[in-house]
Amino acid sequence: MEFANLFQNWLVSSVIGTSPFPLLLLLCGSSLAFLLVSSVRRRQPGGSSSPPPSPPRLPIIGNLHQMSSRPYHAMHELSQKHGPLIRVHIGPRPLYVASSAELATEITKILDADSPGRDTKQASHAVFSGNRDVIFTPYDRYWRDARKLFNDELLSQKRVQSLHRIRDEQVSKLVQKIRLITSSSASDLDKKVAVDLSRMFLSLATSMDVKAVLGREYERGEDESVALGELIRKANELITEACIGEYFPRLSWLDTLTGHTRKVKNTCAPLHEFLDKVIDEHESGPVRDAQDFIYRLQKHDMGLTRADIKSLLLDVFLGGTDTSAGTMEWTMAELVKNPAAMKKVQEEIRRVVGDKPKIDESDVSQMEYLQCVIKEALRLHGPSAMSRKTSSDTRLSGGFEIPAGSSIVINLWAVNRDPTLWERPLEFVPERFVGSGHGYKGLDGKYFPFGMGKRICPGVRFAVSKVELVIANLLCWFDWELPGGMAPEDLDMRDTFAIVARKESPLCLVPRPVKAV
Ligand code: HEM
User: How far is the CA of 487 from the centre of ligand 1 (A)?
Assistant: First the structure.
């Protein structure tokens, strides 16, 4: 979601004064001249319906100027002033923002009974070559069949369990690698080598997904996994990013100047080249394993075209890789920042594993506190938003009306920090999940890091089993400390402002082996 980028691009460019930007300056100048001072519309008493309150806005740019470099924070601030459901304008287009768990549940339920869709961004058409994917497909027959296919062929409990060997193998490689690094520095006790966990997690999540979905590793070594992971990350940014042309069609030529058009081209071309290569190999290779996901897609009676298959493969990579790597990164960051939680979770993991040389997934299911740690990391650092699109006029309790075809953003960032739902909402307190019954299905009307309703994330099991196993291994076989004697409170926890926010600076920690593998 790059409203802020848009604004920043505009701002920076206006200041620099490169040729086309005086036009925007002019637009803004005229906006200021016509500053809307009309009072905010309030809820109308009685049974009549009304649009949700809308903060005062400027002509032409709407509320764009109020979207700081952190749009979800900015939307949250506007909601605190104007109510949990607001209508903001990005350029001429209204965007409805819901910031309470209650509204999120109500909206999801109402739209689930109709046909829950999502707004698509221009770039998502390029990334998915026409949106024949699951994430953006409207709620239709294709979406239902594709989701079922996903569930049956890749994401069912049985299939996810059957992929445990791949997870084991990749995690063992990571542990060995870290051991090697620590042993090479062991001769010199003062030489503590910090490892870049952000990079390692991206590489690991990418190779785990590539192997699970494509049947074998296509990248040679960490550098190639990271390169592919970065490409997936860029594509992920694009599908949630709004470009200038989307909101100001007459100014779409500015997208070339801001670099957006180039980014779309430079991301989509290598991504599709990679997928074409993979599919070509599958078609020409001699061995066609019936367990092979691509083979099963090709043989499916939905009659999927190559473009459809690429879109579905991208669903897995874009939906799962960056999100899983980010969850691992934030979990470790929060734990080093909170030594008491770190100690408690390590004690639990080591008690469950005992003298065994290897952690099995059945061990992880006994690690209740670890599961709470990951839930808490997802509360604070999971996706910042989920989106819906209304297919017909939608009336919410309180009499607010959202017209058909409107985009709604559910501000998960705000819901997850709502002090009426969470005690000490800004603190990392995994204990809040102990025996709480908050699962990942979004059934409690309060906690839904994977969304909820018909369009809930289908990859929950796939993602959680990966994250749990990786974190359990890192915490079982190593102690972790901050480099250079840094104090936990000094760890930089700033995030990028993407929907799936990453740590702005890489997480580098010093491992110390504690058990032989
Ligand atoms: C920690 C990891 C993950 C998180 C936090 C996450 C979160 C989410 C969220 C919040 C949504 C929107 C749900 C809604 O609108 O109600 C979503 C949708 C989706 N996710 Fe995930 N996800 C993760 C991993 C995965 C994985 C591993 C896959 C695939 C293997 C995946 C595939 C998808 C797909 C295809 C959708 C679109 C579903 C639809 O519209 O029908 N995700 N995810």
Answer: 35
Rounded-to-integer distance, Cα 327 and Cα 453, Å: 22
Q: How many angstroms does the Cα of residue 301 sit away from the middle of ligand 1? A: 25
Which residue's alpha carbon is at the smallest distance from atom 24 of ligand 1? 320
Return the closest-CA partner of residue 44 out of 409, 401, 405.
401
For atom 21 of ligand 1, which residue has the closest CA? 457
CA of 275 to the centre of ligand 1 (A): 21
Across 173-177, 301-305, 475-479, least confident range: 301-305
Contact present, 511 and 178 (Cβ < 8 Å): yes
Q: Is-contact 400 116, C-beta < 8 A?
A: no
Mutate-to-test residue for ligand 1 from 109, 450, 454, highest number of ligand atoms within 8 A of CB: 450
105-109, 113-117, 324-328, 423-427 — which is least confidently predicted?
A: 113-117
Residues facing residue 205 across a β-bridge: none
- Ligand 1 atom closest to the CA of 321, numbered from 1: 27
Of the candidates 275, 377, 280, the residue with the CA atom closest to the CA atom of residue 318: 275
Identify the helix (H) or strand (E) that includes residue 162: helix 157-162
Answer yes or no: is 457 a known binding residue.
Answer: yes
Cβ burial 498-514 (10 Å sphere, 16+ → b, else e): bbbbbbeebbbbbbebe
Q: Residue 258 C-alpha to ligand 1 middle, in angstroms?
A: 29
pLDDT confidence band for 33 (50 / 70 / 90) = very low
CB 321 within 8 A of CB 205: yes
Pocket of ligand 1 (CB under 6 A): 134-135, 147, 155, 315-316, 319-320, 323-324, 327, 382-383, 386, 449-453, 455-459, 462-463
- Mapped onto helix, strand or coil, the DSSP state of residue 289 is coil
The CATH superfamily assigned to 100-513 is Cytochrome P450 (1.10.630.10)
Q: Please give the model's pTM, rounded to 2 decimal places.
A: 0.90
- Cα separation, 314 vs 39, in Å, equals 45
- pLDDT at position 466 is 96
Percent of the chain past pLDDT 70, that is, above it, reads 87
Least confident window among 15-29, 241-255, 312-326: 15-29
What average pLDDT does the chain have? 86
What does the alpha-carbon distance between residue 435 and residue 438 come to, in Å, rounded to a whole number? 8
177-186, 291-300, 353-362: which is most confident: 353-362
Q: Output the 3-class SS for 437-467.
A: CCCCCCCCCCCCCCCCHHHCCCCHHHHHHHH
Beta bridge partners of 402: 394
Sign of CA dihedral 168, 327, 419, 80: negative
Model confidence pLDDT, tens digit, residues 44-103: 444 567 999 999 999 888 998 888 778 888 999 999 999 999 999 988 889 999 999 999
